[in-house]
Structures are given as structure tokens and as C-alpha cells.
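QA checklist item 7 of 12: single-chain prediction sanity check.
[x] sequence parsed
[x] length recorded as 159
[x] structure emitted
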Amino acid sequence: MIRFFCCFVFVATTIATAQQVPPELVGKWAIEREIPTGTISCWDDKQAKAILGTQIEYTAHSFAWNHKHFDHPTVKVALVSADEFHNQRSAPSGNGSEVSFRQLGISTPRVKQVTIGHPPANITGATTEIPGDEVWIKNSNAIVLAVCNIYFEAKRLGQ
């Protein structure tokens, strides 16, 4: 009985933790710049520039960008290595999209990747992504995000 109770408490804690935005991401962030990469995008320059200066806000139980707000989204957290990131986000041919930690200014061998699930959104008609729904934590005051295969850096506000 005690073993069952301990297992139940562990599973319940794991499920609750998996549904929360990580504490190091909680706060307000401003999308400050596009990061030059060798990727092929579904957005043009005008669409990419339109999200510069917009803000993302994360709380433990919500996610918001530009008047789109989601309570209790699904949250997945993973540690991703530089090689894993490159292999998942770059095309295998030499003529395809290329992106690496180095291009993004990430100097660590692994970063925390946070993916936030939400209903599809119509930002421009080209994608259902929302800026900030998948991020890589660069450091305590900077995150990297991608929308339509264009990479941006956002800085923490209020520090």
C-alpha cells in the first residue's frame, strides 16, 4: 500500500510539473531581432519584421502573444544537444535549410527546449505557429524562437 501511494504521488507530481511553464521562462519577453541563418522560410521579410517589438508572456500556467492568450497549455520540456538541433532543423542536402547553435549565438552544448501546445492559430495564413510556442533558452535573459523557419531572439523585460 505504501509503495502504491509513493508511486501515485510521484506520477501525480510528474504530470503536474510537465504541465507548467519552466520557472526560468516565466515573465515578459520582447522579440528584438531576427537572427541570420541559412534557412528557407514560408514568410517574407515584411511578415518577419511585423513580429519585431511584440511581446510574449509566460506564467506558470499560461502563454500569451499579441492578444492571443492560452490558459493551461500543454508544455513539453527537453534538453537538446547542438547535433540534435541541427539534425532536426536542417535539411540533409547541401542546398536546403541550415541552422546551428553557432548561428543562433548559443555557446552551450545543450539547451532547454520548451514546446507549448495550443489550438491552431492564424497569424498570417502561412502558419499555425505562434511566436514563442517553441523556444530555446539561451540564458536567463535571452531566448531563441522560430516562426515559419525564421529565428528570432527575445530579451527578458523588467530586469
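[x] summary fact logged: DSSP finds four helices and nine strands in the chain.
[ ] second reviewer sign-off
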